[in-house]
Amino acid sequence: MPAMLAACAEAHPNIALIKYWGNRDHRINLPANSSISFNLDGLVTRTLVVFDPHLNQDRLVINGRERYREPLKRVQRILAWVREHSGKYLYAHVISVNNFPMEAGIASSASAFAALALAATKAAGMHLDERALSRLARLGSGSACRSVPDGFVEWRAGVRDEDSYAFTLFPPEYWDLWDCIAVVSAASKPYSSKEGHRFAETSPIQWARVTDAPRRLEWCRQALKNRDFQALAEVVELDAHLLHAVMQTSTPSLLYWEPATVALMHQVREWRKQGWNVAYTLDAGPNVHILCTSDFAMRVEQELQARPDVQQVLTARPGKGARLVPLDLCRDLFRQGNLPLPTDLL
Ligand code: DP6
Fold this sequence. Notes:
Elements: E1 6-11, E2 14-18, E3 23-25, E4 30-31, E5 35-39, E6 45-51, E7 59-62, E8 65-67, H1 69-86, E9 92-98, H2 109-123, H3 130-140, E10 152-156, E11 165-170, E12 177-183, H4 193-199, H5 206-211, H6 213-225, H7 229-248, H8 259-273, E13 278-281, E14 288-293, H9 294-305, E15 312-316, E16 323-325, H10 331-336
The structure holds ligand DP6.
């Protein structure tokens, strides 16, 4: 019997400290500016890919549900690349689970495409190095390239496909920062990030955000290097406000903030005045990511849990990059995809 063309991988989403918004080339997610993030270890996507000669089309199952149209199309972009470069022209089952609620508005595309890029290339018998894997993940979702390397990561924008990839700045243990995510609204977004990246260039201040990015990137690298929380807080909040200023002034105008979002931003600043090491950042949604040093994590988590305007609190620390998972730990994924277990796992 031929070896089974199957592999499983997992990856974390990441939170950007310096944000990616807008592309130089939308086709290949070549970003307008470099960005910096860290992987969120508490949240994870696990993905099984099985290339199957009996299939006559690709299949995508997320959290036990078959998916079609847009999500499947995005996955097929990665599968098409893998088929072309491996010579294995077979359709695939892609079975994926998240341990965090997708409906809570926490971006799962970064962890999803990082795990998919690794699982799909391995299943097809390919061995990509970290840089090549990061570039491949980028084709699915820009920020996914940052979920491939470990820890604190920089995505160098580059000017063409070959030089736009992410790499580790510092390992996860370098600084025990926490991200306490306050979920304030689970309502689905009127526009996806994919659409938002296209609107960015209609904002009259996108050029200012992008032109100033090298200064903020260096400020952030230094703050991380020196584990200087005050400097990090300043640059992270400045960058998040620049991102939302661009969103709010683009056409159409994207206003993600809810009353609870603004209330939490004020609260974080108040805590900082009282000497707490806390700072906030926001992605393309109303939820507030509250970054803090480990000595404040419990207090922040408890305060957030006690608030009526916070629906849920998720916490994470700097995590590793994308990695393979042995198939014998993926029996539940085979089951979810109604796939027979490989003979050596029976
Ligand atoms: C606001 O990479 O998620 O979170 O390429 O459409 O998947 P797609 O967009 P994505 O955009 C991320 C935008 C952001 C900022 C960031 O994470 O840097």
